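wait is this the right file?? whatever heres the structure
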């Protein structure tokens, strides 16, 4: 079993200084869904698996993806090109 993450490790993973992390921790919990620490007294600690899962899914610096696509397609140059892409993706529309 691995030891829990410390505040320093969490701040480094998020990409902020330790001071900034301590000042914005509650806001990050409410706004970004950062898991709550598992320790109530002494140095704050986070469960490793819960924090890793949050970091994978909800990291605030992670770029947003469109729908379930890993990458957004390049924008169509004109309407005909867009219609052709739709035709290839969904087949011929019923008239």
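ok assuming it is, sequence goes like this
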């Amino acid at each position: 079993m691995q030891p829990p993450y410390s505040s320093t490790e969490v701040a480094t993973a998020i990409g902020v200084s330790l001071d900034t992390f301590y000042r914005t921790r509650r806001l990050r919990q409410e706004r970004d869904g950062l898991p709550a620490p598992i320790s109530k007294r002494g140095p704050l600690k986070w469960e490793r698996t819960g924090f890793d899962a949050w970091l994978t899914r909800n990291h605030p610096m992670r770029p947003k993806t469109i729908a379930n696509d890993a990458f957004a397609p390049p924008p169509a140059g004109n309407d005909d090109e867009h219609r052709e892409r739709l035709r290839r993706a969904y087949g011929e529309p019923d008239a």
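Strands lie at 5-6, 45-46. so i think its the right one actually
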